[in-house]
Amino acid sequence: MTITTRLDRIKQLLKKGNFPKFRFEQIRNAIYSDKISRFSQISNLPKSLKEQLAKELGDEILTVKKVHEMIGKQAHKVLLETADGHQIETVRLTYYLKQNGVRKIHHSLCISTQSGCALGCLFCATGAIGFKKNLTADEILDQVLYFIKNDMPADSIIFMGMGEPLANPDNTLRAIDLMIAKDGLSMSPRRLSLSTVGIIPGIERLTRDYGSINLAFSLHNPFNEERAKLMPITNAYPIEKVMTAIDEHLKVNNHKVFLAYILLKDVNDSQRHAKALTDLARATPDRLRLLHVNLIRYNPGNSLTPYQKPTNSMVEKFQAILTSYKIHHTLRQDFGTDINAACGQLAATYKPKQSPG
Ligand code: SF4
């Protein structure tokens, strides 16, 4: 599918009006770098061009606008609305790191690719509200630009907000193009991470064309039958087939792939699950070398889902099994739970389409 972005439309407009080429640069800079929010505020453009831009695209530069924001201890969540009235959430996370004795602050932006989601994973607040729409490439990019324009740049971008990025692949990948383009945000692809529930054609596309981007597979259960109950997408893309696509990704790109695992009390936090996860992660030398398991304690959040947080003792036992089998793993810090901005908690102000449980 060919995606036409705001910049494509601006190029067409300039060509049609026979404007000199440097005008494009001026407009591009205003979109990407300047702190202004309206085309009519671009001071170095002739009035007639500003009027034409506003007529063609509307006067607002960004395709999303802020409705509400919540600022927690380490998470800043913004509720944004698209021009056609759909809501999405974007979260900026702050990490305090210490590297070689030097303290560093790292800001990561967790962005959405869809409003709502059709895939209905049972632990996910976004899944509970159902599908609203696929975001356009500009709406995906503009979540980043919103924060830049408000003096909150990001060191890294994670495609793990509302929606499944590879269920909206054309817009997501076009937004990635704009983020890494030299005349776009000029970000290194290594600073971008995409998390998927295992949409195989999308993973294959990433392996082929976007190998430098960090890939995470949201596994959450190593047994197909149990996972299918939790994540219906398993029926279309069973675990072993997704892992075969990941094996190819590891072979071609030779860098780390993450397995995300949300620990849900009495659902997937047993030693049986931990052992099966280690079997999966040790099945080939490449997996053992390059897979990294990210454990995440489930956050009950706004109670759109019926699950509970695992006990510390279960988490410790789970980790101990991974350690004993030399599986690279990390227990992620609990971020954003105070403002419902943690993993799987993004639901904007939508209500669930049916009562959970
Ligand atoms: S976990 Fe991801 S794919 Fe599943 S319902 Fe939530 S947003 Fe959709």
TrEMBL record:
It comes from Candidatus Collierbacteria bacterium RIFCSPHIGHO2_01_FULL_50_25. One of its GO terms (cellular component) is cytoplasm. It is found in: Cytoplasm. Residues 103-338 form the Radical SAM core domain. GO terms for molecular function: 4 iron, 4 sulfur cluster binding; metal ion binding; RNA methyltransferase activity. GO terms for biological process: rRNA base methylation; tRNA methylation. Its cofactor is [4Fe-4S] cluster. This is Radical SAM core domain-containing protein. Its main location: cytoplasm. Keywords: 4Fe-4S, Cytoplasm, Iron, Iron-sulfur, Metal-binding, Methyltransferase, S-adenosyl-L-methionine, Transferase. The lineage of its organism: Bacteria, Candidatus Collieribacteriota. SUPFAM superfamilies: Radical SAM enzymes.
